[in-house]
Specification:
43% of the residues lie in helices and 11% in strands. With 763 residues, the protein is α/β, with parallel strands linked by helices. The protein has 2 domains: 387 residues, TIM Barrel, CATH 3.20.20.210; 343 residues, TIM Barrel, CATH 3.20.20.210. Strand 16, helix 23 and strand 17 form a beta-alpha-beta unit. It is globular and about 75 Å long.
Length: 763
C-alpha cells in the first residue's frame, strides 16, 4: 500500500492582518525595543506552526519564516556581509541584517530584484571578497523550537546551493564550481547537526532547475549533492523545484536525493513523467495545489490526476503539497466577509489550500468515498462561481476579437514624435521628474480608513486629497522640478486602485501578500471579462494641472503589470484578459489627453517578472506584452509624450522588448545595482529618451550630491545628455516627507550643476 504524506512548502510570514509588517516598522521607527520585536515575531511564527498542525499537515516547514527575506537569511547564515557594512564575524546581528536590506546613512543597500517570475523581491547576495562560513545554524534553531514548543518534528527548509549561487553576484561564471565546492561543507554541517537533533526530512529549494542551466552547472550540482548525501545519510532530502517545468528533467530526477518535488500546476510535470518515467528509488512530492493563485481547487480533477500519477510511478510513498511556497498568496479567506458569497466560495487562500491538501491526501489514501461530502461541496461552489453573471461580457469579448495588428500602431515614428514633443514641452536638457507616487503619511492613511468606514463624506475626503495635491504641487515647484506629478494620494496601491475602478475585478479586505521587506500588496481578483466603467485618474490629474504652468504627468499602471499583479482565473486565456485591460486603459488615456494632459506615464514594473522561466517560451509572452502596451497608447496624438517605468530586473534580457514598446521616455530602477545596467546600454544602441534612477528610494538614507553627480556622470558617459532624464529609481509613497524633499533637493541641484557644466564644455 502506498503511503500518502501531506506537506507544505512554506507559509505566509505576514500574519492574518499584517502583524509582521507593523512589528517591523515599529522596530525600524524605534517605537518598540528589539526584545519586543522578537517577542511579536516569535508569536507570529509559532501561531503559523500551530495552525498548520491543527489543519493536519504531516510535514510542516520551518525556516520559511523571515524577518525580511529568505535569501538574505541564507547570505548572513554564511557570513556574506558586504564590506561597506561593519561586521566583525560571527552571527550577524539584527541591525546589520536590516542595514544590508535597507542601507544606512553611509552605506548603500544591497541590490533588490524579483524572485524568479513573481512579485516577491529578494536581496541579491554579494560574493566578492566573501569568506564563506557558517555563522549560525538557523534551520537547527527553528527545528528545535518547534519540537520543544509543540512536539512537532518539522521539515526544515533551506535555499539550495545551486539556486543561491545562481542568484548571487560578484563572481565570474567560471568560478561557480569552486564556490559550490566551498559552500557544500556548510550545507553538510547544517544537515549533520539537524540529523543529530533527530530531523528526518529536509527540504532544499532549487527553483533554479526550472530555468535553462548549463551542463557544467548540472554536473557540479550532482557532485555537490553526492557529497551531501554521503555526509548526512540519516536525512531524507527533498529537492524541491517549482515555478515551472524542470528543463533538464532527466538530470534533475537522477540527483542523489530521497525525494523530488515537481510542479504539476505550472510545470506540467505529469507529461515529463509519462515521457521519461520517475525513479523507482525516489519519493515523488507532487505540487498539485496552485501555490500562486487564489482559486478553489477542483478536488475531483486533482484527485483523478493523483490517481493517474500513482499508477504511473512505482513508489511506496507520495507527498502531496502546493506547487510552490504559499508565500505568494494571502493567509486566509475567512476574513473576507464583505465579498459576494459566490466569489468567496470560489476562493482558496493559504489556509484553505492546506485543507485541500489534507483532503486530497485522505482521498488518495482511503478512496473517494472517504471525502465524498468534501467533493460534493467543492463541486457545488465551483459550479456557482463559474456560472455566475459577472463572468462574461459579450461586448468586451467582441472588441477583443476584432483587434488587428494595426490596432496597436501609433503611426508617426519616435524621431518625428520627439521633435514635436520637445517643441511643445520646452523642457531643459536633463529634465527632472519623479516616478509618480509621493509620501503616503499616517494622516493620509487614517483619513482613507475613516472614509472607507463611512466616518467622513465623499466631499470631505476628496477635499482632503485635493489639499494634499495642492501642497505637493507647491513643494515640487519650489524644488524646481521640471515635470510634476499629482502624487497618487487617492491610491492605496498601483494595481489594486485600478482593480477597484474596472469592471471584472473585485478587491479583498485582507488579501495581503509580501512584495519586499515590510511592503505588502493586495492583488485584486479578476472574476470575469474586464472593461472600462468610469474615469479613474482624470479628476485628480486635471486638478493638479490646473495649479501649475509646468506639465503634470498622468499616471496609469500598464496592462501587463495589472495582469501580473492580479489573481487571474484559469478559465480565461491570460492574453485575452491582457488585451481587455489594455482596451480599458486606452479609454482612460484618451480621456486624459482630451482634458489637456500631454505627458502620460504607463508603468510596467512587472513586465520582466512575468517571463516564463524557460527561455524557449519567452517570445509569445513578450510579443503579447508589447502589443498590449502599444494598444493602450495607440490613439494619442504625436505631441503627447508617453512615459513608462520598470523596476529592478535583468533588463539585458528584454532590451529589444523595451525598445519595441515604443514609449517616448522610459525610466528604470538602477541605483542598487550600482549602474550595472549601463553595460546593456553600452552594448546596445537605444535612441529614445531614458531616465536611469539616480538614487534608491527603498532606503531612508539621503544621497549626497557627490553620489548623485557620480551616478549621473556615469550614465552620461554612455547615454547622450539630450536623451537623459533625471529621476529617483521608483515611486516615493513609502518615504517620509522630510526624506523625500531632502533627496529631491539634492537631485535637482545635481541636475542644475550638470547642465551648467554641459554649457561650459567646448562644442
Amino acid at each position: 500500500m502506498t503511503t500518502i504524506i501531506s506537506s507544505n512548502l512554506g507559509y505566509p510570514r505576514i500574519g492574518e492582518k499584517r502583524q509582521w509588517k507593523y512589528a517591523l516598522e515599529q522596530y525600524w521607527n524605534q517605537t518598540i525595543s528589539q526584545e519586543e520585536f522578537i517577542r511579536q515575531t516569535d508569536q507570529i511564527r509559532l501561531d503559523n506552526l500551530k495552525k498548520q498542525k491543527y489543519i493536519g499537515i504531516d510535514l510542516i516547514p520551518t525556516g520559511d519564516f523571515s524577518f525580511y527575506d529568505h535569501v538574505l537569511d541564507t547570505s548572513v547564515m554564511f557570513g556574506i556581509v558586504p564590506k561597506r557594512f561593519p561586521y566583525q564575524g560571527g552571527k550577524v546581528d539584527l541591525d546589520t541584517y536590516f542595514s544590508i536590506a535597507r542601507g544606512t546613512k553611509d552605506a548603500v543597500a544591497s541590490e533588490i530584484t524579483k524572485w524568479f517570475n513573481t512579485n516577491y523581491h529578494y536581496i541579491v547576495p554579494e560574493l566578492q571578497d566573501a569568506s564563506l562560513t557558517l555563522t549560525s545554524n538557523r534551520p537547527l534553531e527553528l527545528f528545535k523550537e518547534a519540537k520543544e514548543q509543540f512536539g512537532i518534528h518539522t521539515k526544515p527548509v533551506l535555499l539550495g546551493p545551486i539556486t543561491f549561487l545562481q542568484l548571487a553576484k560578484g563572481y565570474k561564471e567560471s568560478d561557480f564550481g569552486k564556490l559550490l565546492e566551498a559552500l557544500t561543507p556548510l550545507y553538510i554541517q547544517i544537515l549533520q547537526e539537524l540529523q543529530e537533533e533527530g530531523a528526518t526530512w529536509v527540504q532544499i529549494d532549487e527553483p533554479i532547475f526550472a530555468t535553462n542551466l548549463s551542463d557544467e552547472v548540472l554536473h557540479d550540482a550532482h557532485l555537490a549533492y553526492e557529497k551531501i548525501r554521503e555526509a548526512a545519510p540519516g536525512i531524507q532530502l527533498l529537492l524541491q523545484t517549482y515555478f515551472g517545468k524542470v528543463t533538464n528533467y532527466k538530470e534533475v530526477v537522477s540527483l542523489p536525493v530521497k525525494a523530488i518535488g515537481l510542479d504539476f500546476i505550472l510545470g506540467d510535470a505529469f507529461s515529463q513523467i509519462k515521457a521519461y518515467g520517475f525513479p523507482k528509488d525516489k519519493v515523488l512530492a507532487a505540487g498539485i495545489i496552485n501555490g500562486r493563485n487564489v482559486w478553489r481547487t477542483d478536488l475531483n480533477k486533482s484527485l483523478q490526476l493523483l490517481e493517474e500519477i500513482k499508477q504511473a510511478i512505482e513508489s511506496e510513498t507520495i507527498i502531496i503539497q502546493p506547487s510552490s511556497s504559499l508565500l505568494h498568496v494571502p493567509v486566509t479567506k475567512r476574513l473576507e466577509t464583505e465579498l459576494d458569497p459566490i466569489i468567496q466560495g470560489g476562493l482558496s487562500f493559504a489556509d484553505e489550500k492546506l485543507v485541500e491538501i489534507v483532503t486530497l491526501a485522505k482521498g488518495l489514501e482511503y478512496g473517494k468515498e472517504a471525502i465524498q461530502q468534501d467533493l460534493e461541496n467543492n463541486t457545488q461552489s465551483l459550479i456557482q462561481f463559474n456560472q455566475s453573471a459577472f463572468k462574461r461580457n459579450e461586448q468586451v469579448q467582441k472588441d477583443v476579437e476584432e483587434l488587428t495588428k494595426d490596432s496597436a500602431d501609433r503611426g508617426l515614428s519616435f524621431v518625428d514624435r520627439i521633435a514635436l514633443q520637445k517643441r511643445r514641452l520646452k523642457l531643459p536638457v536633463l529634465p527632472t521628474t519623479t516616478i509618480g507616487s509621493l509620501p503616503q503619511t499616517k494622516e493620509l492613511k487614517e483619513t482613507r480608513t475613516r472614509y472607507r468606514k463611512g466616518e467622513i463624506s465623499v466631499t470631505d475626503y476628496e477635499h482632503f486629497i485635493q489639499q494634499l495635491i495642492k501642497k505637493w504641487i507647491k513643494i515640487q515647484e519650489d524644488l524646481e522640478l521640471d515635470v510634476l506629478v499629482h502624487g497618487e494620494f487617492e491610491r492605496t496601491d498601483m494595481v489594486e486602485y485600478f482593480g477597484e475602478k474596472l469592471e471584472g475585478f473585485v478587491v479583498t479586505k485582507f488579501g495581503w501578500v509580501q512584495s519586499y521587506g515590510s511592503r505588502c500588496v493586495k492583488p485584486p481578483l479578476v472574476v470575469g471579462d474586464v472593461s472600462f466603467d468610469q474615469p479613474m485618474t482624470v479628476k485628480e490629474t486635471v486638478y493638479a494641472q490646473s495649479l501649475t504652468d509646468k506639465p503634470v504627468k498622468g499616471m496609469l499602471t500598464g496592462p501587463t503589470t495589472i495582469l501580473n499583479w492580479s489573481f487571474v482565473p484559469d478559465d480565461i486565456p491570460r492574453v485575452t484578459i491582457l488585451n481587455q485591460v489594455a482596451l480599458a486603459l486606452k479609454k482612460e488615456v484618451e480621456l486624459l489627453e482630451e482634458n489637456g494632459i500631454k505627458i502620460i506615464q504607463i508603468d510596467e514594473p512587472a513586465l520582466r517578472e512575468g517571463l516564463p522561466l524557460d527561455r524557449n517560451t519567452w517570445q509569445n509572452y513578450l510579443e503579447s506584452a508589447v502589443y498590449a502596451f502599444r494598444l493602450t497608447t495607440s490613439s494619442v496624438q504625436p505631441d503627447t509624450q508617453i512615459h513608462t517605468h520598470m523596476c529592478y530586473s535583468n533588463f539585458q534580457d528584454i532590451f529589444e522588448t523595451i525598445d519595441q514598446l515604443d514609449a517616448d521616455v522610459i525610466s528604470i530602477e538602477t541605483s542598487r545595482s550600482h549602474g550595472e545596467l549601463l553595460s546593456t546600454f553600452k552594448e546596445n544602441t537605444y535612441k529614445k529618451d531614458i531616465g536611469l534612477g539616480v538614487y534608491d528610494i527603498h532606503s531612508p538614507r539621503i544621497p549626497s550630491s557627490q553620489e548623485l553627480n557620480h551616478n549621473i556622470e556615469n550614465a552620461l558617459s554612455i547615454i547622450p545628455a539630450e536623451q537623459f532624464w533625471i529621476n529617483p529609481d521608483c515611486g516615493l509613497k513609502t518615504r517620509k516627507t522630510n526624506e523625500t524633499i531632502s533627496a529631491l533637493k539634492v537631485m535637482v541641484q545635481a541636475a542644475k550643476e550638470l547642465r551648467q557644466s554641459l554649457l561650459l564644455q567646448p562644442k
